[in-house]
Design a protein that fits this description.
Elements lengths: L3 E5 L4 H5 L12 H17 L6 E4 L3 H13 L8 E2 L17 H7 L1 H9 L12 H15 L6 E5 L1 H11 L4 H5 L7 E5 L4 E5 L10
Helix pairs in contact: 2-3, 4-5, 6-7
Length: 206
C-alpha cells in the first residue's frame, strides 16, 4: 500500500454555526484558514516529499485547505487533482439542518441508522451509506496501485470510511472512529498513525 496522508478541511462557516453541510459549499473561517496553515507548517517541517500527489474534494472548503497546504510545501496548485469521489456525503434534504439533534427530532429512525447501521442510512434526496462506501472503495482501489505518496484533503466522514475500509470495519465501527481538524492520519501497509498537531495550534485566535 502506498503512503496516504488524510487531512480534514479547516473549520468552515457552517461548522462554526453547527449546521450539517453534506455537499453544500461553506467557506473556511479565519480560524479554519489558520488551521490549514498550521497543518501546512507541520508538513513542511516534518515531511519531505520527493514525489507526491495531492487529491482533494471538489467542495470549496477542501479546495481552500488543499491550496494552503500545497503552497506551504511548494507544490504547484495546478497539480492538485480534484477528485469527485472524495466529495462529502450527499445528505440530500437534511443538508443545512442545524445539528443532528434536529434531524433526530424530525426523523428518529434516520438518525438511528446513521449511528447504528450507517451503510443503510439514506437521507431523502441523498445517497446511501453503501453507495458512499462504494465510491470511496473504488477510489482507494485505484490509488493503491501507484506507490507515490498521496495527500488526501476531504471531510471527516470520508476519512472515517477510508480508515474503516482499510481496517475492514463494520459501518457502525467506521462512524465511531475519531475525526478532528487538528489530526493528520498516516496510513501505510504496516500501521495507522495519528499525528496530532503541536499544542501551539490551540493558541491560534478563535
Amino acid at each position: 500500500m502506498t503512503d496516504i496522508y488524510l487531512v480534514r478541511h479547516g473549520e468552515s462557516e457552517w461548522n462554526r454555526e453547527g449546521r450539517i453541510q453534506g455537499q453544500c459549499n461553506s467557506p473556511l473561517t479565519e480560524f479554519g484558514i489558520a488551521q490549514a496553515q498550521a497543518i501546512s507548517s507541520y508538513f513542511s517541517e516534518h515531511l519531505s516529499f520527493e514525489q507526491l500527489k495531492i487529491f482533494c474534494s471538489p467542495l470549496d472548503r477542501a479546495r481552500q485547505t488543499a491550496e494552503i497546504l500545497a503552497e506551504g510545501i511548494n507544490y504547484p496548485l495546478e497539480a492538485i487533482i480534484i477528485e469527485p469521489r472524495l466529495n462529502d456525503f450527499n445528505l440530500g434534504k437534511i443538508a443545512g439542518t442545524y445539528g443532528w439533534e434536529k434531524v433526530a427530532e424530525m426523523d428518529p429512525e434516520l438518525a438511528r441508522l446513521r449511528l447504528q447501521n450507517p451503510l443503510y442510512f439514506h437521507p431523502p434526496g441523498g445517497e446511501s451509506g453503501s453507495e458512499f462506501k462504494d465510491r470511496i472503495s473504488e477510489f482507494l482501489d485505484e490509488i493503491i496501485q501507484d506507490k507515490t505518496p498521496k495527500l488526501l484533503i476531504s471531510h471527516g466522514i470520508v476519512n472515517k470510511f477510508i480508515r474503516g475500509i482499510r481496517m475492514n470495519l463494520s459501518g457502525k465501527q467506521m462512524i465511531e472512529l475519531g475525526e478532528s481538524q487538528d489530526t493528520i492520519y498516516h496510513l501505510n501497509d504496516f500501521q495507522e498513525q495519528e499525528i496530532k498537531l503541536p499544542q501551539w495550534l490551540e493558541l491560534i485566535p478563535n
